[in-house]
Amino acid sequence: MKLSYSRCLLIFLLSSALPSHAELRATGDLGVVIERETGSIQIVNTTKPASLSRIEGLGDLSHASIVFSRDQRYAYVFGRDGGLTKIDLLQDKIDKRIIQAGNSIGGAISQDGKVIAVSNYTPGGVKLFDSVTLEQLAEIPAVYGEDNKLSKVVGLVDAPGQRFVCSLFEGNEIWLIDAKNPRQPVVKKFKDIGKQPYDALLTPDGHFYAAGLFGEKGLSLLDLWQPEKGVEHILEDYGKDDEQMPVYKMPHLEGWTVAGDWLLVPAVGLHEVLVIDTREWELVKRIPVAGQPVFVTSRPDGRQVWVNFAFPDNQTVQVIDLKDFNIVKTLQPGKAVLHMEFSPRGESVWLAVRDEDRVMVYDTETFQEMARLSAQKPSGIFFTDRANRIGW
User: Fold this and answer.
1) For residue 189, is pLDDT > 80?
2) Among 4, 29, 326, 335, which residue's CB has the most CB atoms within a 10 Å radius?
3) What are the DSSP calls for 243-309, one per residue?
């Protein structure tokens, strides 16, 4: 059967309008840069490195964080205004966005990737959402004390067994949330764990949850393999005789570093990084650094730890070699280095330099600058390989 001239012409026009080949994008090579003051993000390629697109309309990102779907296609952005935004990294667009609270500071994604948990300041509590539709599945008010007050929720992480763990800042509690049935989560509460837990970390194997304490010295440690043993208070003697300096920015424990038997954490109000033996949970070394550390972040192989600092030393980044716990490099990338993120195998590190409106990429072996990208007041940097990590 012969095709008419008009039909042949139509087929030709349609086929010529399509690209000869579609541009393919591998999700494992992507990342997101938060532009905090403009309520926007950039999607970046972590290998080139390069900026691929900018997405606006994400609200207040002054304290934003991100988790990724299991397939690394979607990024879930937790905004300070209570916004929860699902970003399609392949189509460069907002897939869904809701306002779920008045003030939120972070979240996590469940072990099976089906549930998003959000930690809220206002109202204090945790909410669970379906990761596909963002339908609310459950609300867990952070009620504490005889007066049933609401506490700010901090240090929310995912844990094995379809669980989440979080801390109550005013409530002085740690909660272990079993979300196997996300519409009816079961909460186990550990009370009087220490004054004002401000952030927390989960060890890479999901075994231990450690909450940093702002109201007193030390850390509160929960063994998730044996939660019936309760919470242990560790490192309560460190720095107790030292002069306490004003705290210009709360340090973050979620940028944890566990390398072999060592855990490295920022000291609150001191110019130190603490080295803890995780076999006995004892302090073995205090490393003097250039300022009050904010993030103490390990290269994926555990050989190096990169440290950034609070004001007035936030133009500085220092590198600690864990072979002998010595500082091997001090860099000056620019004013207000807010966040650091390593490439998946650690050959490079990306730094958000807020007051210079740029992201800088360094080679972690030579410490030479590899690239710089323009960004509007960048803060958090998040790469999609986080999708395959526990507690991130």
Assistant:
1) yes
2) 29
3) PPPP-SS---SSS-EEETTEEEEEPTTSSEEEEEETTTTEEEEEEE-SS-EEEEEE-TTSSEEEEEE
Query: Would you state the pLDDT for residue 252?
Result: 62
Backbone angles phi, psi at 384, to 5 degrees: -70, -15
- Sorting pLDDT into bands at 50, 70 and 90, what band is 265? confident
Among residues 330, 364, 336, which one has the least CA distance to residue 352?
336
> Residue 192: which of 209, 216, 208 has the closest Cα?
216
Residue bearing tokens 């139509």:
10
- Single pTM value for the model: 0.91
Check residue 258 and give its pLDDT.
79
175 contacts 187 by C-beta, under 8 angstroms? yes
User: What residues pair up with 257 in beta bridges, in sequence order?
Assistant: 264
How far does Cα 38 stand from its chain's mean position?
A: 20
Q: How far is CA 125 from CA 156, 211, 259, 283, 350, in A?
A: 11, 17, 33, 33, 33
Q: Is the pLDDT of residue 241 over 90?
A: no
